[in-house]
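dumping this here before i forget
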Amino acid sequence: MAAYVIGHISVKDAVKWAEYKRGVPATIVPFGGELVLRGQRKAVLGGEHRHTDTVVIRFPAIEAVDEWFHSDAYQQLIPLRLQAADVDLISYEAAL
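structure:
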């Protein structure tokens, strides 16, 4: 069953964020990950949402998400991510 990682993002440092974004794709490929969406918020249609950007990454299974997140390659990017942006990163298992 497919799994997704959704990141809600508020960029603090655009240069560092660009560097982080360049590094992420190479970390997801070994786990069957695919970047589905990178976008900026245009409107909040209901409720509240504090972040300006969103990313959606699809993986073949929830186990692949865990393996990716805990991989050395991704763990090395986390300090850069923390400097570059405030990110809420959430994993979901598809229910369809």
